[in-house]
Each structure stands twice: as C-alpha cells, then as structure tokens.
Amino acid sequence: MYINTEGIVLKSVKYKDSDAILTLFSKKMGKVTVYAKNVRKMNHSSMAVSQSFAYGNFVLRTQGKMLQLSSFECKENFYFLTEDIDKTFLAYYFVELSEKLLVENQTNHRLLQALLESLYALKDIEKYELVKLYFECKALRFCGYQPQVSKCLKCGIIRDNSIPFYFQVEDGGVYCYHCKSETEGHNIFYTQYDNTTYQLLDFMMRESLQQVMQAEISSVILKELDRFVRQYYSVHLGELQLKSVDFVRHIAP
C-alpha cells in the first residue's frame, strides 16, 4: 500500500553505507519512522530527504511493519538556516522539541503548521527571541501542556486586576490571593507575574506569528514572559533532556 503525505524530516540517522532512517513529521500520520534506501548516494533523486528540515511531499509504502520511502518531492530544504549559527541552533531546537513532544502515529496538524511557520520566519525576521517564544508557547498549547492562567486553580475565579494572582509552577497554573493565603506556611512557592504577562501568553498561544510580529510588545513584559516560559519548561518538560536547549539559552529578549 502506498501513502502520499506532506511532511518534514525531524531527524535523519545514517544507516549502512548509503541508507538513512528518518523521523518524519507527516501531515497524515504524525510522527513516523521511515526507512530511506540509497538516499545518501550521490545524485540520488531523493538525496535531499537525507537531511533534517527537508520538507515536501512523501510517497511511502508499507513494508511489513515498516514504512519505506518510495519517492520525495522537495518543497523546501531550508538551506538558508545555515547562513547564521543562531538560525541553525533555533531550527534544531524547534525540530528536537517537536520530535520529543509528538506521540508516534498521532497527527498534530497545528503543531506542524507552527513549526513550518517558525522555520520560514527565520529567513527574514531578525527577532529570533520572539520566534522562539512563539514556538515554545504554541508547542505547549498544541501538545497538551498549556498552563492554566485564566482563572484560579482552586476556586475558579476569573483572573483580572482586582486582586493579585500568583503562579504555582508545579501545579501549572495560578491561584488568587485568597486561595494562596490558605496554603502559606506549607512550603509551597509562588511567583507573581504582571497581569500583562498572562495576557501576552494568551495572545501568543491564540494568534498567528504574523500578528505577534506586528504587535507592539513591551520589552519588560517580553522578558517576563521568557522567564515564565523557561520556568514552566524546566519543571514540566525538563525530563525531555533536549540536547539543543543549551545552544539557544542566549537567545532571549
């Protein structure tokens, strides 16, 4: 059986003399492993697929329990990512984060769209820190890790400016002043963020990258959101042990 699907190579591992094992983020099947025979041979028609970031149309065929590459039509190889070391590091961070968060054989069209949108943005946009924050927020939302900052985790009161709200990172959400007061002295630690930071988080998760880039965002609030996201990732996604994260720590507002 043959399967036609759009997708992007998240990871390519050399196999034997001229083959490759691909981790493919496909539109129809989600994250799948694909055996690509002879694609590392010089002048092979699908040679481009042996590199990470290769994006295009894939024709796959089932070979027992394995998927095997039949043909590949390249739409974009994202070669421009090699022009700048920060672009390269960010791109590897985006695909590694996607690969770790995705569940095998489960589609995630919205994350695929956000990944492609972020990679293309690195071509012309110099605000790398904003693209990084945007993708990190989208990844949280589309993979089921979205923090609850719209209302108190305990009493359910909607967050507004009338009373202070405090973020409890282990619980993944905010508590109002009254509910926080009930737990004082129990070795529970809270962080207070500006209400505008939560609004920016909601905005990042809801809107497109183009709208985010057009918005006037305070540098102070952007730095605070970056601190929020780093804190949240370290607690809830630290077990992913991303190799690329150390190379993008300096890309910050």
From TrEMBL:
Q: Which domain of life is it from?
A: Bacteria
Which keywords fit this entry according to its UniProt record? DNA damage, DNA recombination, DNA repair
Residue ranges occupied by any DNA replication/recombination mediator RecO N-terminal domain in the UniProt entry:
1-78
The terms describing its cellular component in GO are: bacterial nucleoid
The record's listing under InterPro entries reads: ARFGAP/RecO (IPR037278), DNA_rep/recomb_RecO_N (IPR022572), NA-bd_OB-fold (IPR012340), RecO (IPR003717), RecO_C (IPR042242)
Gene3D superfamilies per the record?
A: Nucleic acid-binding proteins, Recombination protein O, C-terminal domain
Q: Which GO terms describe its biological process?
A: DNA recombination; double-strand break repair
Extent of the signal sequence? none
**NCBIfam families attached here?**
reco (TIGR00613)
Q: Which protein family is named in the record? A: Belongs to the RecO family.
The job of this chain, per UniProt, is described as: Involved in DNA repair and RecF pathway recombination.
Q: What name appears for this protein in its UniProt entry?
A: DNA repair protein RecO
Which organism encodes this protein? Filifactor alocis (strain ATCC 35896 / CCUG 47790 / D40 B5) (Fusobacterium alocis)
